């Protein structure tokens, strides 16, 4: 059983082929700069193994259809490919950013499901059309293969109204579905499942706080295995301090910037999404560069680190209050998995809540999931690598076996 996972962006297609029996990756790659003068396809067969083989192709890739066909040509290449024909793909899982209130779980793609994804375009005007491009192309190339949509928002559809409503005129919710949705749901769900396994109890009995710190950052409060609150909102801008996104700001900032800086809404939106966060504070958005700069005495880099980890602490405290009893805190994604300093700073001063980090375990580097709390910590602390592609493949497997 070989599954293909597709994450289609506006000018890119990320993909993986996974052998489901062993959950091993047979091929992974990225088509990028679709529609530009020169596009690029980077593919790796058998990544992380002795048989690993990388190739890069640069040529004009006018659209997603051409991009996907180049990928298929590579995958079915008689000499180095990993499948003979497209019929060897059992199912395809597609990442879809916004399922709105229509999707509480992944769905087998049918014309009605496509309509529902289209209906949610106003909530994700950049992402959903790009995701739909990937689905359309895959349906043309693999007309008989079942295709499954896996939504970033679905895991958070269990949030209760008091957590998902903004205190705005109710008509905005009724007429335009303005509310908090949350994102990174596939990642939060995946690490929550892995954490339950490590805790040795059913997910339905676990209260967890999952902390996804990558370029995008979000935190989720999970009660009895389901999301009850999460830090991202109507769009992926609310909450924690991210690489280039501000997270929480005073909503009156827009008026201030318009009145004092003459900025229009589009430029304010770009400022908050692309020029803020760690980058806005210190000019760098990669945490590795920030640590180097801090070590060299850069005050702004130190400030950026402090602002981000203080915000993490504030949300951790809030979610401790939301949940009451917490079995474990889980760190994941690029920063969460690799950065001992950010983890330690984010947990600083939380000993009164029974959160006790083991500095030695926290400092050890490993690729595997691991516990980094002291044995006397009432809340266990884990680092669990996220794997969104595998999570999407598993979701697709569940849906097609129904
Ligand atoms: P992601 O979005 O999960 O791919 O995370 C990307 C971010 O993770 C990068 O922008 C870096 O800030 C951070 N990152 C990756 N590797 C490391 C590392 N070894 N130490 C600290 N931060 C890292």
What can you tell me about this protein's structure?
The longest helix has 25 residues, at 299-323. The protein folds into 2 domains: 2-151, ATPase, nucleotide binding domain (Nucleotidyltransferase, domain 5); 201-388, Nucleotidyltransferase, domain 5 (2-Layer Sandwich). α10 (287-295) crosses α11. Helices cover 38% and strands 20% of the residues. With 402 residues, the chain is α/β, with parallel strands linked by helices. The strands form 2 sheets. It has an 8-stranded mixed beta sheet, with helices on both faces. The chain has a 6-stranded mixed beta sheet with strand order 11-10-9-12-14-13, with helices on both faces. It has 15 helices and 14 strands. The model has no long low-confidence stretch (mean pLDDT 97). Bound molecules: adenosine monophosphate. The site of adenosine monophosphate has 11 residues, from α10 and α12.
List keywords for this structure.
Nucleotidyltransferase, domain 5; alpha/beta; 15 helices; binds adenosine monophosphate; 402 residues; globular; six-stranded mixed sheet
């Amino acid at each position: 059983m070989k599954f293909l996972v597709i994450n289609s962006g506006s000018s890119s297609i990320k993909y993986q082929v996974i052998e489901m029996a062993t959950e091993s990756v047979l091929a992974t790659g990225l088509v990028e700069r679709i529609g530009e003068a020169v596009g690029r396809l980077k593919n790796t067969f058998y990544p992380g193994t002795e048989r690993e083989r990388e190739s890069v192709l640069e040529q004009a890739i006018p659209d997603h259809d051409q991009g996907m066909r180049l990928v298929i040509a590579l995958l079915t290449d008689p000499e180095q490919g990993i499948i003979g024909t497209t019929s060897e793909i059992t199912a395809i899982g597609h990442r879809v950013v916004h399922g709105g209130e229509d999707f509480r779980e992944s769905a087998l793609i049918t014309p009605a499901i496509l309509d529902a994804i289209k209906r949610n375009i106003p909530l994700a005007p950049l992402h959903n059309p790009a995701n739909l491009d990937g689905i359309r192309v895959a349906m043309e190339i693999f007309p008989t293969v079942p295709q499954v949509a896996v939504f970033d928002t679905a895991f958070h559809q269990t949030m209760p109204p008091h957590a998902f409503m903004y205190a705005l005129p109710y008509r905005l919710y009724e007429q335009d579905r303005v509310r908090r949705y949350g994102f990174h749901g596939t990642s939060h769900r995946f690490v929550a499942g892995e954490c339950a396994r490590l805790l040795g109890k059913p997910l339905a009995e676990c209260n967890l706080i999952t902390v996804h710190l990558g370029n995008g950052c979000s935190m989720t409060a999970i009660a009895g295995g389901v999301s009850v609150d999460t830090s991202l909102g109507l769009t992926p801008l609310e909450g924690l301090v991210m690489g280039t996104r501000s997270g929480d700001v005073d909503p009156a900032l827009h008026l201030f910037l318009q009145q004092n800086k003459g900025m229009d809404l589009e430029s304010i939106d770009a400022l908050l999404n692309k020029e803020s966060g760690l980058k806005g504070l210190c000019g760098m958005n990669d945490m590795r560069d920030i640590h180097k700069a801090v070590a060299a005495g850069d005050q702004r880099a130190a400030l950026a680190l402090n602002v981000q980890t203080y915000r993490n602490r504030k949300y951790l405290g809030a979610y401790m209050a939301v949940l009451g009893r917490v079995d474990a805190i889980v760190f994941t994604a690029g920063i969460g998995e690799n950065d001992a300093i950010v983890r330690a700073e984010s947990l600083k001063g939380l000993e009164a809540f029974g959160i006790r980090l083991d500095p030695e375990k926290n400092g050890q580097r490993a690729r595997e999931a691991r516990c980094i709390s002291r044995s006397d910590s009432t809340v266990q602390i884990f680092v669990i690598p996220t794997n969104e592609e595998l999570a999407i493949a598993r979701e697709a497997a569940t849906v097609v076996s129904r």
